[in-house]
Model the fold of this input.
Amino acid sequence: MSEKISIEDTPKRSVPRFSRHDWIRLFIVLWFIACWFIGGARGQVDLDPFFALAYPDAKEVSKVSDGVFEAVASDGGILGYVGVESASGYGGPLTLAVAVDPEGRASSLSVIGHRETPVFFKRALRGGILEDLVEKGFQDSITLGEDVDGVSGATFTSLGLTQSVHRAVRNVAAGQLKLEVPPKERRIVFGVPEMVLIGLFAVGIAQRRIRVKKKLRSQLRWATLLTGLVALGFLYNRPFVLAHINMVLIGYWPEWQTHLFWYILILGLLFFKAKDEWNLYCYDFCPFGAAQDCLGLIGGAKSHKVRWSNELVWAKRWLIAAAISLALIYRNPGLSSYEIFGTMFRLEGSNFQFALLALIVLSSMFYSRPWCRYLCPLHRHGAEGLFSWCRKQVLNGWQKLRPSPAQ
Amino acid sequence: MAETSSKSGAIVPTLWAVLFAACIGLAAAHLVQAVQGQAEQESGLIESTFTQADARE
Done:
């Protein structure tokens, strides 16, 4: 005869208890949520200084529709309009105020908000792109690289500025001036950087799915590392940075047509990390990781014993938490990017970043991947570790809710 | 002899720790500088980036 099993005898699924570190992680997650709300409560940009510069003779500048203002002279005549539009830059939305004359041409403009890393934003301005965009009309196609010179090393910033002006001029021309605006061209940017990135992901996945000999696996890994170093590092300077994490947290999702690379990188990383706990980027094609590995070959780098290692890792975690918090509060994903990738691959950065780069380059020759372990925001001791912890809590919660199978 | 080797064995890990602490300090200093720059940038952004057609001539 079969024995009856009561509910009390049914084995309960054990859920790990919260440790001290778990409470700290939970506090950090809640703190990020609070910073997000603080950032959202910050005031709107005051446009009066732009109105005074663009239309000094205007008696009044008043809002006529969403993002459009009308400048009226003292005799009642319309001097022009101001369109406020945004487009995706590198770190988030770039917002411009564009004064549009009655013929539908941009007569003046100003950047009223941006989320770009300061170095690259200044580079874009030094390239003279704003001067190129002034006097563009609603019928002009205003394509970066064709009608407007892009700025090397600040491509996304240049693209964002170009698109903002284009939208503002077209919006005013169609809405207020009632002019016939040509249809907008939607180009999808898919080129060599995107193909290289997909190829790197494909090789990384294949290495994990297909059984290969250890020697071949090592060779493949070096091939992807060197490809990452050359392509994602020196050629295109598109490593994964803290700004990408900040953009996801803030909610700045750029246009996929012009930022396909961003989507492939972010979604690829998140998908395989969530599904299989794989970090395809750090160990397979991170350009800075590859640079450290190459330097390590020179001095025979290995993982030496470090005093107060645990304390240093926790110092790194608090640094990352501060960086993400500031990005959320100021709504600027690139603000807190302290990484030295641009310093290495483009020789641009603050004095602190150059000093940091020198120390990391020297130590990489003798210590294996020091940046990854003690400074990288993405590493398993940083954002990746927090993501894994969140994933674990979700899975544990799901296990708790799911009924136990009967024996 | 054992004491000398144990002292030198303790020095190297300490030196590594000091080096990495200095690196974290430099990253933190860059962060502070960036935040200060953000506040300055927000205050004069419109005026500093204002561009009009006459300026090109």
